[in-house]
UniProtKB/TrEMBL annotation:
Residues 207-281 form the tRNA-specific 2-thiouridylase MnmA-like central domain. The gene is mnmA. It comes from Variovorax ginsengisoli. Residues 148-150, 316-317 are annotated as: Interaction with tRNA. This is tRNA-specific 2-thiouridylase MnmA. Belongs to the MnmA/TRMU family. SUPFAM superfamilies: Adenine nucleotide alpha hydrolases-like (SSF52402). It is found in: Cytoplasm.
């Protein structure tokens, strides 16, 4: 690749640090940008942006590159967080990382980098971009480390974004990334990976949502309509959830389908009209299994839908690609029919389609059809 001016999103983590190092090693002019995207509780124990910036600045110092601190908090609140809250209030479970990548890291950040004269941007995501010369388009590929692949979160990227983006660590396994960081003396070589909401960090989730969404308690019922307890508000629960239901001691007399008296309870349905949380016993209860799903708010990396037919799909992150048949839904929506019923398919989450290692794009799950 010809030498280019590349702006790297330095998060303070090891992946973006090694990304900057690899590009500098290749002879590119590398500039670091630290994105600050959350300001509501900067002084709280959960907001790590100040620590992260110190780590990012230390990395820039070791690598000998410039770093700029950029504040996208207003963009984040308008484009990502407002939608995040709307989805929760509607009883769905959104994926903020997907929206954050589409709206902040590969829009606001990309636009800013281009204003700085960048020819490309780079991030520490575990994914790859390949130019398919025959089809004359860029393809989004899975990262080579199957345990770290993040293409699921990047599936909304379009041709313009992919053509300007590099993912150097997508070619590596995490163990190799840490080894490189250690070898060149990066100060964050052993820093643990971040989890939690994109840019907001790790914090007690229900307590956090409480500040933005009002509680509306209602009944928790089982499949026979018996009231087992009271929920704190449907927004605070997600399908397949097992912890935090407050009904662990309840026995189900004559429990069916192999679920014993002490089998765990799982959230199976959220009924907004009656404010009822429905729970079932047993991980493989039919209410938790879906044969089909329909997704809308569709985004395809190629700019057009793939041909109907057989593919693999993930209806949640860290899931093995499930064999499925893609067909057109109503309007711009699409439908996936699975060979094997999928567990806890959750409205608001993303259904992402794959053709082998190529991530084709996807949509937001609107509904699921029970397997039985």
């Amino acid at each position: 690749m010809a030498k280019q001016r590349i702006v790297v999103g330095l998060s303070g983590g090891v992946d973006s640090a090694v990304t900057a190092h690899l590009l500098k090693q290749q002879g590119h002019e590398v500039v670091g940008i630290f994105m600050k995207n959350w300001e509501d509780d900067d002084d709280s124990e959960y907001c790590s942006s100040n620590i992260d910036f110190i780590d990012a600045a230390s990395v820039a110092d070791v690598l000998g590159i410039e770093i700029e601190h950029v504040n996208f908090a207003a963009d984040y609140k308008d484009r990502v967080f407002a939608e995040f809250l709307r989805e929760y209030q509607a009883g769905r479970t959104p994926n903020p990382d997907v929206l954050c990548n589409a709206e902040i890291k590969f829009k606001a950040f990309l636009d800013h980098a281009m204003r700085l004269g960048a020819e490309k941007i780079a991030t520490g995501h575990y994914a790859r971009v390949r130019l398919n010369e025959g089809a004359q388009r860029h393809e989004l590929l899975k990262g080579l480390d199957p345990a770290k692949d993040q293409s699921y979160f990047l599936h909304r990227l379009n041709q313009a974004q992919l053509s300007k983006t590099l993912f150097p660590v997508g070619e590596l396994h995490k163990t190799e990334v840490r080894r490189i960081a250690d070898e060149i003396g990066l100060p964050n070589a052993k820093k643990k990976d971040s989890t939690g909401i994109c840019f907001i960090g790790e914090r007690p989730f229900r307590e956090f949502l409480n500040r933005y969404i009002s509680k509306e308690p209602g009944p928790i019922k089982d499949e026979r309509g018996r009231t087992l307890g009271e929920h704190q508000g449907l927004s605070f629960y997600t399908l397949g959830q097992r912890q935090g239901l407050g009904i662990g001691g309840v026995k189900a007399r004559g429990a069916q389908r192999g679920a014993g008296d002490h089998s765990p309870w799982f959230v199976a349905r959220k009924e907004m009209a009656t404010n009822t949380l429905w729970v079932v016993q047993g991980h493989d209860h039919p209410w938790l299994l879906s044969a089909e799903l329909e997704a809308d708010d569709v985004s395809w990396t190629a700019g057009e839908a793939p041909a109907p037919g057989a593919y693999g799909a993930k209806s949640r992150y860290r899931q093995v690609d499930a064999p499925c048949i893609l067909s057109a839904g109503a309007g711009a929506a699409f439908r996936l029919s699975f060979a094997n019923a999928q567990w806890a398919v959750t409205p608001g989450q993303s259904a992402v389609l794959y053709d082998g290692e190529v991530c084709l794009g996807g949509g937001v799950i609107a509904s699921a059809t029970p397997a039985a």
